[in-house]
From TrEMBL:
<dbReference type="GO" id="GO:0019154">
    <property type="term" value="F:glycolate dehydrogenase activity"/>
</dbReference>
<dbReference type="InterPro" id="IPR017896">
    <property type="entry name" value="4Fe4S_Fe-S-bd"/>
</dbReference>
<protein>
    <recommendedName>
        <fullName>Glycolate oxidase iron-sulfur subunit</fullName>
        <ecNumber>1.1.99.14</ecNumber>
    </recommendedName>
</protein>
<dbReference type="InterPro" id="IPR004017">
    <property type="entry name" value="Cys_rich_dom"/>
</dbReference>
<keyword id="KW-0408">Iron</keyword>
<feature type="domain" description="4Fe-4S ferredoxin-type">
    <location>
        <begin position="25"/>
        <end position="56"/>
    </location>
</feature>
<keyword id="KW-0479">Metal-binding</keyword>
<keyword id="KW-0004">4Fe-4S</keyword>
<feature type="domain" description="4Fe-4S ferredoxin-type">
    <location>
        <begin position="77"/>
        <end position="100"/>
    </location>
</feature>
<keyword id="KW-0813">Transport</keyword>
<dbReference type="Pfam" id="PF13183">
    <property type="entry name" value="Fer4_8"/>
</dbReference>
<dbReference type="InterPro" id="IPR009051">
    <property type="entry name" value="Helical_ferredxn"/>
</dbReference>
<dbReference type="GO" id="GO:0051539">
    <property type="term" value="F:4 iron, 4 sulfur cluster binding"/>
</dbReference>
<keyword id="KW-0249">Electron transport</keyword>
<comment type="function">
    <text>Component of a complex that catalyzes the oxidation of glycolate to glyoxylate.</text>
</comment>
<keyword id="KW-0677">Repeat</keyword>
<dbReference type="InterPro" id="IPR017900">
    <property type="entry name" value="4Fe4S_Fe_S_CS"/>
</dbReference>
Protein backbone atom coordinates (compact mmCIF):
# COMPACT_ATOMS: atom_id res chain seq x y z
CA UNK A 1 0.00 0.00 0.00
CA UNK A 2 1.16 3.54 -0.73
CA UNK A 3 1.03 6.37 1.76
CA UNK A 4 -1.16 9.39 1.10
CA UNK A 5 2.03 11.47 1.10
CA UNK A 6 3.31 9.63 -1.97
CA UNK A 7 0.04 10.21 -3.81
CA UNK A 8 0.08 13.91 -2.87
CA UNK A 9 3.61 14.26 -4.26
CA UNK A 10 2.52 12.50 -7.44
CA UNK A 11 -0.49 14.79 -7.80
CA UNK A 12 1.76 17.82 -7.51
CA UNK A 13 3.70 16.54 -10.52
CA UNK A 14 0.72 15.92 -12.78
CA UNK A 15 -0.76 19.32 -11.93
CA UNK A 16 2.11 20.98 -13.83
CA UNK A 17 1.26 22.06 -17.41
CA UNK A 18 3.44 21.61 -20.52
CA UNK A 19 3.27 20.54 -24.16
CA UNK A 20 4.30 16.94 -23.47
CA UNK A 21 6.88 14.77 -25.20
CA UNK A 22 8.40 15.87 -28.51
CA UNK A 23 6.76 14.34 -31.62
CA UNK A 24 9.57 11.88 -32.41
CA UNK A 25 8.35 8.45 -31.24
CA UNK A 26 6.74 9.36 -27.89
CA UNK A 27 5.45 6.46 -25.78
CA UNK A 28 2.43 5.05 -27.59
CA UNK A 29 -0.86 6.01 -25.96
CA UNK A 30 -2.42 2.62 -26.79
CA UNK A 31 0.35 0.90 -24.83
CA UNK A 32 -0.12 3.31 -21.93
CA UNK A 33 -3.88 2.67 -21.95
CA UNK A 34 -3.33 -1.10 -21.70
CA UNK A 35 -2.23 -0.64 -18.06
CA UNK A 36 -5.18 -1.21 -15.70
CA UNK A 37 -3.21 0.02 -12.65
CA UNK A 38 -3.62 -3.28 -10.77
CA UNK A 39 -0.26 -2.96 -9.02
CA UNK A 40 0.94 -6.53 -9.59
CA UNK A 41 4.20 -5.05 -10.88
CA UNK A 42 5.04 -3.31 -7.61
CA UNK A 43 6.22 -6.38 -5.72
CA UNK A 44 8.64 -7.39 -8.47
CA UNK A 45 10.04 -3.92 -9.27
CA UNK A 46 13.54 -3.51 -7.77
CA UNK A 47 13.53 0.29 -7.79
CA UNK A 48 10.16 0.37 -6.01
CA UNK A 49 11.42 -2.17 -3.50
CA UNK A 50 14.37 0.04 -2.57
CA UNK A 51 12.96 3.56 -3.01
CA UNK A 52 9.40 2.75 -1.97
CA UNK A 53 7.64 5.49 -3.93
CA UNK A 54 4.82 5.04 -6.42
CA UNK A 55 6.54 7.22 -9.01
CA UNK A 56 9.54 4.86 -8.97
CA UNK A 57 7.40 1.88 -9.94
CA UNK A 58 6.25 0.77 -13.42
CA UNK A 59 2.68 1.83 -12.61
CA UNK A 60 3.81 5.24 -11.41
CA UNK A 61 6.00 5.79 -14.46
CA UNK A 62 3.11 4.87 -16.75
CA UNK A 63 0.97 7.44 -14.90
CA UNK A 64 3.69 9.99 -15.60
CA UNK A 65 3.95 9.02 -19.28
CA UNK A 66 0.19 9.42 -19.62
CA UNK A 67 0.23 12.80 -17.91
CA UNK A 68 3.09 14.08 -20.06
CA UNK A 69 1.46 12.74 -23.24
CA UNK A 70 -1.70 14.69 -22.36
CA UNK A 71 0.13 17.88 -21.41
CA UNK A 72 -0.74 17.50 -17.74
CA UNK A 73 2.86 17.13 -16.55
CA UNK A 74 6.24 18.42 -17.62
CA UNK A 75 9.30 16.44 -18.62
CA UNK A 76 11.74 18.18 -16.30
CA UNK A 77 14.39 17.24 -13.77
CA UNK A 78 11.76 16.14 -11.25
CA UNK A 79 9.82 13.82 -13.53
CA UNK A 80 12.76 12.50 -15.55
CA UNK A 81 14.52 11.28 -12.41
CA UNK A 82 11.75 8.71 -11.96
CA UNK A 83 12.42 7.35 -15.43
CA UNK A 84 16.14 7.31 -14.62
CA UNK A 85 15.56 5.14 -11.55
CA UNK A 86 14.13 2.36 -13.73
CA UNK A 87 16.67 -0.46 -14.07
CA UNK A 88 15.06 -1.78 -17.23
CA UNK A 89 15.11 -5.28 -15.71
CA UNK A 90 11.68 -6.05 -17.25
CA UNK A 91 10.47 -8.00 -14.22
CA UNK A 92 7.23 -6.06 -14.52
CA UNK A 93 6.76 -7.35 -18.07
CA UNK A 94 6.99 -10.92 -16.82
CA UNK A 95 4.58 -10.20 -13.96
CA UNK A 96 1.91 -8.08 -15.67
CA UNK A 97 -1.37 -10.03 -16.12
CA UNK A 98 -2.53 -7.51 -18.74
CA UNK A 99 0.53 -7.94 -20.94
CA UNK A 100 1.53 -4.27 -20.77
CA UNK A 101 4.59 -3.72 -22.98
CA UNK A 102 6.45 -1.62 -20.44
CA UNK A 103 9.72 -2.48 -22.19
CA UNK A 104 8.54 -0.62 -25.31
CA UNK A 105 7.23 2.28 -23.23
CA UNK A 106 10.45 2.88 -21.29
CA UNK A 107 12.47 2.38 -24.50
CA UNK A 108 10.48 5.25 -26.06
CA UNK A 109 10.84 7.50 -23.02
CA UNK A 110 14.61 7.26 -22.57
CA UNK A 111 15.51 9.02 -25.85
CA UNK A 112 12.93 11.70 -24.98
CA UNK A 113 14.73 12.33 -21.70
CA UNK A 114 18.13 12.47 -23.42
CA UNK A 115 16.92 14.90 -26.08
CA UNK A 116 14.89 17.20 -23.88
CA UNK A 117 16.27 17.12 -20.36
CA UNK A 118 19.62 18.83 -19.60
CA UNK A 119 22.01 16.85 -17.40
CA UNK A 120 24.15 18.22 -14.59
CA UNK A 121 27.83 18.81 -15.29
CA UNK A 122 28.93 15.77 -13.25
CA UNK A 123 26.28 13.62 -14.89
CA UNK A 124 27.48 14.73 -18.31
CA UNK A 125 31.05 13.74 -17.45
CA UNK A 126 30.20 10.22 -16.32
CA UNK A 127 27.86 9.66 -19.26
CA UNK A 128 30.49 10.98 -21.68
CA UNK A 129 33.00 8.48 -20.29
CA UNK A 130 30.55 5.60 -20.43
CA UNK A 131 29.23 6.17 -23.94
CA UNK A 132 32.57 7.13 -25.49
CA UNK A 133 34.56 4.29 -23.95
CA UNK A 134 32.63 1.10 -23.19
CA UNK A 135 30.87 0.64 -26.57
CA UNK A 136 34.18 0.89 -28.46
CA UNK A 137 36.49 -2.13 -27.95
CA UNK A 138 39.43 -0.41 -29.68
CA UNK A 139 39.28 2.56 -27.28
CA UNK A 140 38.74 0.27 -24.30
CA UNK A 141 41.72 -1.80 -25.40
CA UNK A 142 43.96 1.30 -25.41
CA UNK A 143 42.76 2.13 -21.90
CA UNK A 144 43.47 -1.35 -20.50
CA UNK A 145 47.24 -0.94 -19.85
CA UNK A 146 46.56 2.16 -17.74
CA UNK A 147 44.04 0.23 -15.64
CA UNK A 148 46.58 -2.57 -15.26
CA UNK A 149 49.20 -0.09 -14.02
CA UNK A 150 46.61 1.50 -11.71
CA UNK A 151 46.15 -1.86 -10.02
CA UNK A 152 49.73 -3.16 -10.25
CA UNK A 153 51.31 -0.03 -8.74
CA UNK A 154 48.93 -0.08 -5.79
CA UNK A 155 47.10 3.08 -6.78
CA UNK A 156 43.76 1.31 -6.61
CA UNK A 157 44.34 0.30 -2.99
CA UNK A 158 45.40 3.85 -2.11
CA UNK A 159 42.40 5.45 -3.82
CA UNK A 160 39.92 3.07 -2.20
CA UNK A 161 41.37 3.43 1.28
CA UNK A 162 41.46 7.22 1.07
CA UNK A 163 37.85 7.48 -0.09
CA UNK A 164 38.74 10.63 -2.00
CA UNK A 165 37.21 9.47 -5.27
CA UNK A 166 33.91 8.64 -3.59
CA UNK A 167 33.91 12.01 -1.86
CA UNK A 168 34.63 14.06 -4.98
CA UNK A 169 33.08 11.96 -7.76
CA UNK A 170 30.72 9.33 -6.30
CA UNK A 171 29.61 8.03 -9.69
CA UNK A 172 33.18 7.68 -10.90
CA UNK A 173 33.90 5.84 -7.66
CA UNK A 174 30.97 3.55 -8.42
CA UNK A 175 32.50 2.80 -11.81
CA UNK A 176 35.88 2.09 -10.22
CA UNK A 177 34.36 -0.13 -7.53
CA UNK A 178 33.33 -2.81 -10.05
CA UNK A 179 36.67 -2.86 -11.86
CA UNK A 180 37.78 -6.50 -12.19
CA UNK A 181 41.32 -7.77 -11.87
CA UNK A 182 43.00 -6.55 -15.05
CA UNK A 183 45.21 -8.83 -17.11
CA UNK A 184 46.81 -7.93 -20.41
CA UNK A 185 46.30 -11.29 -22.09
CA UNK A 186 43.13 -10.12 -23.85
CA UNK A 187 45.17 -7.47 -25.68
CA UNK A 188 46.93 -10.19 -27.62
CA UNK A 189 43.98 -12.51 -28.23
CA UNK A 190 43.20 -12.96 -31.90
CA UNK A 191 40.66 -15.39 -33.32
CA UNK A 192 40.77 -16.93 -36.75
CA UNK A 193 38.03 -15.75 -39.08
CA UNK A 194 36.69 -19.30 -39.21
CA UNK A 195 37.30 -21.94 -36.54
CA UNK A 196 36.49 -25.49 -37.68
CA UNK A 197 34.29 -27.89 -35.78
CA UNK A 198 36.13 -30.46 -33.68
CA UNK A 199 33.66 -33.11 -34.84
CA UNK A 200 31.33 -33.59 -37.79
CA UNK A 201 29.91 -30.16 -38.63
CA UNK A 202 26.27 -29.69 -37.66
CA UNK A 203 25.97 -25.90 -37.88
CA UNK A 204 27.85 -22.83 -39.04
CA UNK A 205 27.46 -20.14 -36.38
CA UNK A 206 28.71 -16.63 -35.86
CA UNK A 207 29.90 -15.47 -32.44
CA UNK A 208 29.52 -11.95 -31.06
CA UNK A 209 32.51 -11.15 -28.83
CA UNK A 210 31.08 -8.12 -27.04
CA UNK A 211 33.01 -5.19 -25.55
CA UNK A 212 33.40 -5.74 -21.80
CA UNK A 213 33.23 -9.50 -22.36
CA UNK A 214 36.00 -9.33 -24.97
CA UNK A 215 38.50 -7.45 -22.81
CA UNK A 216 37.57 -8.12 -19.17
CA UNK A 217 36.18 -11.66 -19.55
CA UNK A 218 38.06 -13.02 -22.57
CA UNK A 219 38.21 -16.57 -21.08
CA UNK A 220 34.40 -16.68 -21.40
CA UNK A 221 34.61 -16.07 -25.15
CA UNK A 222 37.39 -18.64 -25.50
CA UNK A 223 35.32 -21.19 -23.57
CA UNK A 224 32.26 -20.43 -25.70
CA UNK A 225 34.15 -21.08 -28.93
CA UNK A 226 35.57 -24.35 -27.58
CA UNK A 227 32.15 -25.56 -26.40
CA UNK A 228 30.55 -24.72 -29.75
CA UNK A 229 33.26 -26.41 -31.82
CA UNK A 230 33.21 -29.45 -29.51
CA UNK A 231 29.50 -29.79 -30.25
CA UNK A 232 29.68 -29.75 -34.02
CA UNK A 233 29.74 -26.04 -34.82
CA UNK A 234 31.95 -24.26 -37.29
CA UNK A 235 32.48 -20.82 -35.73
CA UNK A 236 32.75 -17.57 -37.69
CA UNK A 237 34.07 -14.43 -35.96
CA UNK A 238 33.92 -11.31 -38.15
CA UNK A 239 36.77 -8.91 -37.45
CA UNK A 240 34.59 -5.90 -38.24
CA UNK A 241 32.09 -6.50 -35.44
CA UNK A 242 31.89 -3.85 -32.74
CA UNK A 243 29.52 -3.15 -29.86
CA UNK A 244 26.03 -4.67 -29.87
CA UNK A 245 24.57 -1.26 -28.83
CA UNK A 246 23.21 -2.47 -25.48
CA UNK A 247 24.60 0.33 -23.31
CA UNK A 248 23.49 3.26 -25.50
CA UNK A 249 20.16 1.60 -26.32
CA UNK A 250 19.30 1.05 -22.65
CA UNK A 251 20.11 4.68 -21.84
CA UNK A 252 18.31 6.41 -24.68
CA UNK A 253 21.35 7.19 -26.83
CA UNK A 254 19.27 6.55 -29.91
CA UNK A 255 21.57 7.62 -32.76
CA UNK A 256 24.58 5.85 -31.28
CA UNK A 257 22.60 2.65 -30.75
CA UNK A 258 21.29 2.72 -34.32
CA UNK A 259 24.77 3.27 -35.75
CA UNK A 260 26.25 0.39 -33.76
CA UNK A 261 23.35 -1.90 -34.71
CA UNK A 262 23.92 -1.18 -38.41
CA UNK A 263 27.61 -1.93 -38.03
CA UNK A 264 26.87 -5.26 -36.34
CA UNK A 265 24.38 -6.27 -39.02
CA UNK A 266 26.87 -5.39 -41.76
CA UNK A 267 29.65 -7.36 -40.09
CA UNK A 268 27.62 -10.59 -40.28
CA UNK A 269 25.95 -9.89 -43.65
CA UNK A 270 28.24 -12.05 -45.79
CA UNK A 271 29.02 -14.80 -43.26
CA UNK A 272 26.25 -17.21 -44.33
CA UNK A 273 25.79 -18.46 -40.78
CA UNK A 274 22.86 -20.49 -39.52
CA UNK A 275 22.80 -18.72 -36.16
CA UNK A 276 24.44 -15.78 -34.42
CA UNK A 277 25.53 -16.73 -30.91
CA UNK A 278 25.98 -14.41 -27.92
CA UNK A 279 27.08 -15.36 -24.40
CA UNK A 280 26.14 -12.14 -22.57
CA UNK A 281 22.53 -11.68 -21.45
CA UNK A 282 22.26 -7.91 -21.89
CA UNK A 283 23.91 -8.00 -25.30
CA UNK A 284 21.68 -10.84 -26.44
CA UNK A 285 18.52 -8.98 -25.48
CA UNK A 286 19.62 -5.94 -27.48
CA UNK A 287 20.62 -8.02 -30.51
CA UNK A 288 17.10 -9.45 -30.49
CA UNK A 289 15.68 -5.89 -30.41
CA UNK A 290 17.36 -4.63 -33.59
CA UNK A 291 14.05 -4.71 -35.47
CA UNK A 292 12.74 -2.15 -32.94
CA UNK A 293 15.94 -0.08 -32.83
CA UNK A 294 15.99 0.21 -36.64
CA UNK A 295 12.22 0.18 -37.23
CA UNK A 296 12.31 3.63 -38.85
CA UNK A 297 15.30 2.89 -41.08
CA UNK A 298 14.01 1.93 -44.56
CA UNK A 299 17.39 0.49 -45.59
CA UNK A 300 17.97 -1.63 -42.49
CA UNK A 301 14.59 -2.57 -41.04
CA UNK A 302 14.30 -5.76 -43.12
CA UNK A 303 17.98 -6.57 -42.59
CA UNK A 304 17.40 -6.16 -38.86
CA UNK A 305 14.52 -8.65 -38.91
CA UNK A 306 16.67 -11.20 -40.75
CA UNK A 307 19.49 -10.67 -38.26
CA UNK A 308 17.22 -11.00 -35.22
CA UNK A 309 15.81 -14.27 -36.54
CA UNK A 310 19.28 -15.82 -36.27
CA UNK A 311 20.28 -14.55 -32.81
CA UNK A 312 20.50 -17.10 -30.01
CA UNK A 313 21.91 -17.00 -26.52
CA UNK A 314 24.65 -19.64 -26.27
CA UNK A 315 22.75 -21.60 -23.63
CA UNK A 316 19.47 -21.30 -25.51
CA UNK A 317 21.16 -22.63 -28.65
CA UNK A 318 22.95 -25.57 -27.00
CA UNK A 319 19.86 -26.64 -25.09
CA UNK A 320 17.87 -26.62 -28.34
CA UNK A 321 20.33 -28.49 -30.57
CA UNK A 322 21.64 -30.78 -27.84
CA UNK A 323 25.13 -31.46 -26.54
CA UNK A 324 27.09 -34.12 -28.39
CA UNK A 325 30.34 -33.82 -26.42
CA UNK A 326 30.88 -35.99 -23.35
CA UNK A 327 30.89 -34.19 -19.99
CA UNK A 328 33.18 -35.14 -17.11
CA UNK A 329 32.94 -34.09 -13.44
CA UNK A 330 34.61 -30.74 -12.76
CA UNK A 331 35.24 -31.54 -9.09
CA UNK A 332 36.29 -34.71 -7.27
CA UNK A 333 33.22 -34.57 -5.04
CA UNK A 334 29.73 -33.11 -5.35
CA UNK A 335 29.72 -29.43 -6.32
CA UNK A 336 26.96 -27.26 -4.89
CA UNK A 337 26.17 -24.62 -7.49
CA UNK A 338 23.71 -21.73 -7.69
CA UNK A 339 22.65 -20.17 -10.98
CA UNK A 340 22.15 -16.40 -11.01
CA UNK A 341 19.32 -15.38 -13.33
CA UNK A 342 20.33 -12.37 -15.41
CA UNK A 343 17.30 -10.14 -15.96
CA UNK A 344 17.82 -9.78 -19.69
CA UNK A 345 17.82 -13.55 -20.03
CA UNK A 346 15.02 -14.30 -17.58
CA UNK A 347 12.65 -11.44 -18.41
CA UNK A 348 14.04 -10.04 -21.65
CA UNK A 349 14.51 -13.34 -23.50
CA UNK A 350 12.38 -15.72 -21.38
CA UNK A 351 15.39 -18.01 -20.88
CA UNK A 352 15.58 -19.67 -17.47
CA UNK A 353 15.17 -23.42 -17.85
CA UNK A 354 17.84 -23.97 -20.51
CA UNK A 355 20.88 -22.85 -18.45
CA UNK A 356 19.78 -25.06 -15.57
CA UNK A 357 19.27 -28.02 -17.90
CA UNK A 358 22.79 -27.66 -19.27
CA UNK A 359 24.42 -27.26 -15.86
CA UNK A 360 22.62 -30.32 -14.52
CA UNK A 361 24.15 -32.42 -17.31
CA UNK A 362 27.57 -31.96 -15.68
CA UNK A 363 28.21 -34.94 -13.36
CA UNK A 364 28.35 -34.26 -9.59
CA UNK A 365 26.48 -30.94 -9.84
CA UNK A 366 23.99 -30.15 -7.08
CA UNK A 367 22.08 -27.15 -8.36
CA UNK A 368 20.51 -24.92 -5.70
CA UNK A 369 17.79 -22.30 -6.17
CA UNK A 370 18.06 -18.94 -4.36
CA UNK A 371 15.09 -17.20 -2.82
CA UNK A 372 13.82 -14.23 -4.83
CA UNK A 373 15.70 -15.53 -7.88
CA UNK A 374 14.06 -12.97 -10.18
CA UNK A 375 15.36 -9.97 -8.20
CA UNK A 376 17.74 -7.75 -10.19
CA UNK A 377 21.30 -7.63 -8.84
CA UNK A 378 21.47 -3.88 -9.48
CA UNK A 379 23.95 -3.94 -12.35
CA UNK A 380 21.44 -3.28 -15.15
CA UNK A 381 23.99 -2.23 -17.74
CA UNK A 382 25.47 0.97 -16.30
CA UNK A 383 22.79 1.53 -13.65
CA UNK A 384 25.25 0.74 -10.86
CA UNK A 385 27.40 3.62 -12.12
CA UNK A 386 24.54 6.09 -12.60
CA UNK A 387 22.38 5.12 -9.59
CA UNK A 388 24.97 3.59 -7.21
CA UNK A 389 23.01 3.84 -3.95
CA UNK A 390 19.99 1.91 -5.21
CA UNK A 391 22.25 -0.54 -7.04
CA UNK A 392 24.26 -1.23 -3.89
CA UNK A 393 21.16 -2.08 -1.88
CA UNK A 394 20.05 -4.51 -4.57
CA UNK A 395 23.53 -5.99 -4.84
CA UNK A 396 23.65 -6.70 -1.12
CA UNK A 397 20.25 -8.40 -1.23
CA UNK A 398 21.11 -10.49 -4.28
CA UNK A 399 24.46 -11.68 -2.94
CA UNK A 400 22.91 -12.48 0.43
CA UNK A 401 20.29 -14.64 -1.30
CA UNK A 402 22.94 -16.44 -3.36
CA UNK A 403 25.16 -17.09 -0.35
CA UNK A 404 22.24 -18.41 1.69
CA UNK A 405 22.04 -21.39 -0.67
CA UNK A 406 25.40 -22.59 0.64
CA UNK A 407 26.69 -22.89 -2.92
CA UNK A 408 30.42 -23.20 -3.49
CA UNK A 409 30.20 -21.61 -6.96
CA UNK A 410 27.91 -18.97 -8.49
CA UNK A 411 27.13 -19.39 -12.20
CA UNK A 412 26.50 -16.01 -13.86
CA UNK A 413 25.66 -15.58 -17.58
CA UNK A 414 26.26 -11.84 -17.88
CA UNK A 415 29.44 -9.75 -17.40
CA UNK A 416 27.67 -6.83 -15.73
CA UNK A 417 25.99 -9.13 -13.22
CA UNK A 418 29.29 -10.89 -12.57
CA UNK A 419 31.06 -7.61 -11.81
CA UNK A 420 28.25 -6.49 -9.49
CA UNK A 421 28.13 -9.83 -7.66
CA UNK A 422 31.91 -9.99 -7.27
CA UNK A 423 31.91 -6.48 -5.81
CA UNK A 424 29.34 -7.36 -3.16
CA UNK A 425 30.93 -10.71 -2.38
CA UNK A 426 34.14 -8.84 -1.66
CA UNK A 427 32.32 -6.27 0.48
CA UNK A 428 30.84 -9.14 2.50
CA UNK A 429 34.24 -10.78 2.89
CA UNK A 430 33.45 -13.78 0.67
CA UNK A 431 35.59 -15.30 -2.07
CA UNK A 432 32.95 -17.50 -3.71
CA UNK A 433 33.94 -17.97 -7.37
CA UNK A 434 31.65 -16.43 -10.01
CA UNK A 435 31.91 -18.44 -13.24
CA UNK A 436 30.07 -18.23 -16.55
CA UNK A 437 28.04 -21.36 -17.41
CA UNK A 438 29.95 -21.70 -20.69
CA UNK A 439 33.20 -21.93 -18.73
CA UNK A 440 31.73 -24.69 -16.57
CA UNK A 441 30.67 -26.62 -19.67
CA UNK A 442 34.12 -26.07 -21.15
CA UNK A 443 35.78 -27.53 -18.04
CA UNK A 444 33.48 -30.55 -18.23
CA UNK A 445 34.16 -31.14 -21.93
CA UNK A 446 37.93 -30.85 -21.51
CA UNK A 447 37.97 -32.94 -18.34
CA UNK A 448 39.38 -30.13 -16.21
CA UNK A 449 38.76 -29.54 -12.51
CA UNK A 450 37.91 -26.15 -11.05
CA UNK A 451 39.53 -24.77 -7.92
Amino acid sequence: MQTSENYVNFQELIDQKNQGFDPKNPPAQELIDSCVHCGFCLSTCPSYRVIGKEMDSPRGRIYLMNAINKGEAVLDETTSQHFDTCLGCLACVSTCPSGVQYDQLIAAVRPQVERNQPRSFKDKIIRFLIFNLFPYPVRLKLFLPFLWLYQTLGLQTLVRKSGILKMLFPRLAAMESILPKITLSSLFKNYADVIPSQTEKRYRVGVVLGCVQRLFFSPVNEATVRVLTANGCEVVIPKTQGCCAALPAHQGQEKQAQSLARQMIDSFAATEVDYIIINAAGCGHTLKEYHHILADDPEYKDKAKEFVAKVRDAQEFLAAVGLTADLSPITETELTLVYQDACHLLHGQKISVQPRQLLQKIPNINLKEPIDAALCCGSAGVYNMLQPDTADQLGRQKVGNLLNTGAAVIASPNPGCSLQIKKHLQLQGKDTPVIHPMELLDYAIRGLKIG
